[in-house]
Amino acid sequence: METVIMMNRGGWRLIALSLVCLGCGRPSEERSVDLTVPVTVSPATLSTIESTITATGTLRSIREAEILTEVKGDLFLSEREGLGRLSDGFSVEAGEAIARLENDEWIVGANINSRKLALQTAQHTVKEKEALFERGLTTEVEVNNARKALADAKTSYEEARIRVGKTDVRAPISGVMTEVTQTTQGTEIQANAMIGKVVDYSRVLVDLRIPNSQVLAIALGKAVRVSNYAFPDQAFEGKITAVDPVLDPTTRTLKVVAAVDNSDLVLRPGMFVKAEIVKASHSDVVVVSKKLVVKRQNQDVVFVEESARAQMRNVETGLESRDSIEIVDGIEEGDRLITSNYETLRSRTRVRVTSSESN
Question: Residue 45: exposed, middle, or buried by beta-carbon count in 10 A (0-12, 13-18, 19+)?
Fold first, then answer.
């Protein structure tokens, strides 16, 4: 009897051990499918993605020119004559008079009044001679002499006008005045003195340094976007206008100049900006968040939800931006991308959609 009992006990142990071994032998992946993982999903959509090179630089005006005096004189500012705008920040047009220098000696030396009278006399003489010639009362030589005298009088008068005009201080280019040094009425100013500058920043330039590894992606006409922390939600469009043919031997970087439209004068010379040069751009392609692409056995994969199961898709990627990546193959428009708790998922894991995002 004892022998039977001991055999029964031994048999039960053997059976229990066998059951434990059978349970341990089930693959972990098969066991995991019985779990249900809460996830959020979002449909895959088509979009545009760009690959860019980022660089920084300081803005400068497209051009600037000095405001120079042509003669010596006392500074005269007249609001009545539209002058008196000689101060920083005023917009001016090329050739616009912004001040005048009073110099009586210079004006007298121009002798403009007598030259004007001589011009009027010469004009009257030509009319007389031409009328007489039509009546046969004078010769062609007399008419030609009168016409030559008129031409000389015109030249002389124009020279006088130019001489008098040199007392006006005019804007050399269109733009905004800056660094104005003389604004006090009656101040004596010498000839050829710089009394300020005019800057044109309707377009601005930015010098960028591109690393050696990115040189092949640089070309004239490439699109550039410029941004400044003062305008966090605004980008300013431009293009590469100059590329240095030689790399800097010290930094191994390539100097590139980009011109950016600034017709609203929002950007200012001297601003520090971040520039993005567009290397390549693809439109109407599947674009997903970079974080959704994970590695499984050195293969890029993305998880999608199908019939309450997680499906692991091998994907081929393309262009990358800072936060997004192009999916060249493996995901189609409309596929339900799993956007949460995907890090530990396996293929065929049961999932429960807690939120479905729509783009």
Answer: middle
Of the candidate CATH numbers 2.40.420.20, 1.20.1250.20, 3.40.50.360, 1.10.8.60, the domain formed by 29-45+293-356 belongs to 2.40.420.20
CA dihedral 228, 231, 235, 238 (to 10 degrees): -50
pLDDT > 90: what percent of the chain?
A: 70
The correct answer on CATH 1.10.287 for the domain covering 104-166 is: yes
- Beta-strand pair 36-43/350-356: parallel
d(CA 77, CA 122): 37
The ranges assigned to domains in the chain are 29-45+293-356, 52-61+201-281, 104-166
pLDDT 10s digits, 219-254: 999 999 999 999 988 999 999 999 999 999 999 999
Amino acid identity at 240: I
Query: Mean pLDDT of all residues in the chain?
Result: 87
Tell which residue, 104, 92, 97, 96, has the closest CA to residue 77: 97
What's the whole-model pTM score?
0.67
Torsion of CA 17, 22, 26, 28, to 10 degrees: -10
Average pLDDT over residues 201-211: 96
The total of other beta-carbon atoms located within 10 Å of residue 191's CB is 14
SS3 49: strand
- CATH match for 52-61+201-281 among 3.90.1150.10, 3.40.190.10, 2.40.30.170, 3.20.20.80: 2.40.30.170
